[in-house]
Amino acid sequence: MKQHFGQDGVHFFDRVTGLNVLLDEITVPADCLSLAPKYVSIALTNLCNLKCSHCYAPKNNSSLEFELLKVWLKELDDNGTLGVGFGGGEPFLYKNIAELCEYVSSDTTLALSITTHGHFLTEELVSQLKGKVNFYRLSMDGIGETYEKIRGRSFQQFTDKVKIISRNSKFGINFVVNEKTINDLDNALSFAESVGAFEFLLLPQVKTPNEESISIEQLEKLKEWVNRKNCKIRLAISSSFAEGFPVCSFSESDQTQRRFLHIDASGTLKEASFNTEGVKIKSNIIESITVLNSRRELI
């Protein structure tokens, strides 16, 4: 099993089964702490064929260089990262996506997830990636007409893509919560349960050029919804909004250590995907992580 040595103890992880074991009674000496975070999300490209107003990805054609990506992935693997998540933009518009997934599977011990709108998925592609991608995150904002107004795509087509994934891999549903989608929560969760999703991930709206952040009133409504739900599948929420929600729990010490970082499609290391500032990665990603963490300590 892969190991991460953190302030919260020693974390063991199996990428095939998804088993997590945290030995929190172990105190890890400071000089033995893993240098890389547990999880890193990577925007392979900003390219996307949809124009969702809630999206905060930059609207340019930036994409990460394939050979450099492989170097970064190996560094993260060697320094304690347990898993990486490929996103975008739309990751299936990245020209080396299949080759990159093969590299992660065969040349690293990292778990791999992919966040996608799903419309490029085919039986052939999903079959090719079977066993290489450990988890798919399918973006679904609203049900039926709500989804179609936001995404500009048929909800039935999306449902067909979900069925392809469900026959081949473990997957979850990502759901952006804002004033357009919040009333679809019950039906969206029922849909996720009916198609065999492993997880329903709530993503409260963050500010974008075309959308305001989720309002306090909507956030309170979401908390009430979570508190009264008895879910058949795992209910999760983005870490930025985890406080006060019973769907996410992690140790206090684990919060103080950097659990998660993001690399955008320009090669900038950030605390989260929607952050505007970060550290430009030159060659060594571990050096960039050290710089970013030192900046945080000064705040």
Number of strands: 13
SSE class: alpha/beta
Count of domains:
1
List low-confidence stretches: 248-257
**Between the first and last Cα atoms, what is the distance in angstroms?**
36 Å
Describe the strand arrangement of the main beta sheet, using strand numbers.
10-9-8-7-6-5-4-11-12-13
Tell me the β content. Answer: 15-25%
The succession of helices and strands, N to C, reads EEEEHEHEHEHHEHEHEHEEEH
CATH topology: TIM Barrel
Average of pLDDT: 90
Task: List the keywords.
TIM Barrel, globular
Structure description:
The chain has one domain (34-298): TIM Barrel. α1 (66-78) runs parallel beside α2. The model is unreliable at 248-257 (pLDDT under 50). A hairpin with a 6-residue loop joins β2 (9-13) and β3 (20-23). With 299 residues, it is α/β, with parallel strands linked by helices. The protein is globular, with a radius of gyration of 19 Å. The protein has helices spanning 66-78, 97-107, 123-129, 145-151, 155-166, 185-194, 216-228, 252-256, 285-298, and strands at 2-6, 9-13, 20-23, 39-43, 83-87, 111-116, 135-139, 171-177, 199-204, 234-237, 260-263, 268-270, 279-280. It has 9 helices and 13 strands. A 10-stranded mixed sheet has the order 10-9-8-7-6-5-4-11-12-13, with helices on one face.
